[in-house]
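Residues determine shape. We examine one folded chain.
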Amino acid sequence: MVTATDPGLVRGQNEDAVFADAGLGLAILADGMGGYNAGEVASVMATTLLAANFAQFMAASPMRDAESMRAEVMHQRLLAEISAVNTAIFQAAESQPRYAGMGTTLVVACFYDNRMSVAHLGDSRLYRLRGGYFEQLTKDHSLLQEQLDSGMISPEEARHSLNKNLVTRALGVDAVVETEIHDYDVQLDDIFLLCSDGLSDMLDDTEIALAVQTLGDNLALAAEHLVHMANDNGGRDNISVILVRVRGDYTVSRGWWQKLLARLK
């Protein structure tokens, strides 16, 4: 796993936050929004709190003979942790005027037992490159996506829309959050890309795919190149990426599984 984040060429500060730990099998990306510095506070709260909470019960080392883990249990854990973080951000915004209205998008990928659970809110995305085929696995929670789904605008019109940054779901904006979560199988040499809209708004999927496929053997270089390309195209927003390449089996440890079950009781 590698990360890269950059303020871009227009914004005065970086309100994105990223976390990735291959040992935990966890990648988190958040794109903050709100008043002065508030977006940065929300995104940092999201990544640090989620990472800390998951680190408490994820195993230190995997065991190949571990019992397969049920996806619905991971869903419960993700939903519970994201809900707790939502409450923390919402209460901070309510209690401190300088943080009023703050929130953040979120995309979380958790790898376990040769599968991946993905939870997301807003328009930060997760893509997968598998066998030369590049596809977006998440669907944006945004006004623009709703217009696309209803047929009001075409994909080409969407590329030039002024409504790109109007999200319909975010973390910390309301007291209750509706998180979307799905599971995917994981195969050897899959490459996953988590990114903020500072990348996806500046580059089309074909450009992103070409960079990931061409430089996939050097994830650090690929991440750096994606950021560079986004800035070359205008860099109108903060740019953040996390790249994950599957190098082999990833199974959970029995201790981690037992600990997770215990916390859900």
